[in-house]
Write a structure and sequence with these properties.
By secondary structure, this protein is α+β, with helices and mostly antiparallel strands. It is built from three helices and eleven strands. Strands 3-2-6-9-10-5-4 form a seven-stranded antiparallel β-sheet, sandwiched between helices. A two-stranded antiparallel ribbon has the order 1-11. It starts with a strand and ends with a strand.
Length: about 140
């Protein structure tokens, strides 16, 4: 089986609390300016927080980080409880970075577009951190 994607946790602080979501894809939009996008569901409890917070980090998880991927995929109180013990540090732009991630892309919200049932959130890349000693967490179809 060939891997067909990875797991990416979008993290931010809202009213002092860690929150975010897990996605299986994000896409580069432009190199100049450096832009990426993610498409959260409008019904996601994290969607309004992403748009209000204006800054977020895309954490490309390491092969041993399935725990954070599953934790950030939960909703409501279950998510809040599951993510409370995840080790994070503050990034250069003030967003939470999951410790041990293969790479982190710190972004500011550049623009938002309607994508049917999902928002298309375009982030301007402000900082990138790479850990070249780790392999990414991927998945393969059965």
């Amino acid at each position: 089986m060939l891997p067909c994607g990875g797991y990416y946790c979008y993290c931010l602080r809202y009213k002092g609390e860690l929150t975010g979501l897990t996605a299986s894809v994000f896409t580069a939009v432009s190199m100049s300016p450096p832009l990426v996008f993610v498409c959260p569901n409008y019904n996601s409890d994290t969607y309004p927080v992403l748009t209000q917070g204006k800054r977020f980090a895309i954490n490309i998880l390491a092969s041993d980080q399935a725990g954070p991927a599953f934790a950030f995929a939960k909703k409501g109180e279950a998510k809040a409880k599951a993510i409370q013990d995840i080790a994070v540090r503050e990034g250069k732009t003030g967003v939470p970075i999951i410790q041990g991630s293969v790479a982190t892309i710190e972004c500011s919200l550049w623009n938002e577009y309607d994508g049917g049932g999902h928002a298309i959130l375009v982030g301007k890349v402000e900082h990138i951190h790479l850990d070249q000693d780790s392999a990414p967490l991927g998945f393969a179809p059965k």
